[in-house]
Amino acid sequence: MIDIGLSKMALIGAVALIVIGPEKLPRVARTVGTLLGKAQRYVSDVKAEVNRSMELDELRKMKDSVENAARDVEQSIQTTASDFEKDWADATRMADGSADNALAHDASSVTPAYKHPGKNWRLKRGAVPQWYKARAGVRTRAQSGAARVARFRPKRFH
What we know:
This protein has helices spanning 6-20, 25-105, 130-136, 145-152. It is an all-alpha fold.
């Protein structure tokens, strides 16, 4: 850029005072200041746009590399899965041949069907210890409304 020091600025100001004159100099100085401000803003906008475009290019390159890596991983998983499926099919075919013979001789080896464990959703069965539940007053047993009223009803004195 242009190296303008204090001495050069004073020389330019003196020449401008002589050439332009003292009555027009403030208006010209204001105009030159606004033009320099606009030029600086324009240059900063251009720099910001260039930086954004460079960052966008870098992000695109990074996105492409991540997509390629994901594609490679997906292909390797698919090949591994297809190999596993082939091995599984071979193993089940071999097991089916021996299992058919075993099932014909022994009918008690049939596995029972899955039965869902009947959890009571009203009871709080978290990972909170019982002593903490007792201290905090958390209900651990389901109780009907009538039973709760009867439990907490004040006893009558005779």
